[in-house]
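Hi R.,

Here's the chain you asked about this morning:
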Amino acid sequence: MKFVRIVGAGALMLSLVASSAFAEKTKAEQRAEVDKVTSASLEKFYAAKPELKAMAAKAPGYGVFTTYGFSFVFGGAGGHGVVHDNKTKKNTYMEMASGSVGAQIGASESQVLMIFKNAKAMNDFVEHGWTAGGGAKAAVGADGKTAGGGMGGTMMDNADSFTLTKNGLEAGVAVSGSKYWKDKDLN
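And the predicted structure, written out as tokens:
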């Protein structure tokens, strides 16, 4: 009986170690996927507006997010991304959710680039993550190419925000709010 308990405890410990190693691999794979999407998004922003590359390089840091949303009067979106600290070279993986209301209609996958003007703004964003905004937009995207554009922005102190519609259609005028938070699984 004692032998069975020892073997059982050993098997349990081995399974915990194996599952921990598997979870770490999955975490690394997830980070690699977010990093890959981030790099591809940055290249699209730089191709659309070449001066963004120098702005992002000179800034204390930047954030890149991919969002998926739907709107018809009321709207909602969710997504994920990363905030990169240029000084420490550290990435903070984050998630986001947003809601909006207005004369709007659409369903889209969009990419958002935020370039922080100072380290405090970047750190506040990572720790607190709220933004508010509003504006008018008409954009369509297919196969990663965007047509159209919009006016509007986010109310974030000391940061510039840029958006590309990758796939889908967005049109309308709305007021919105977003919450960004650290991804507990990837950090």
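The chain has a mean pLDDT of 78.

Let me know if you need anything else.
M.
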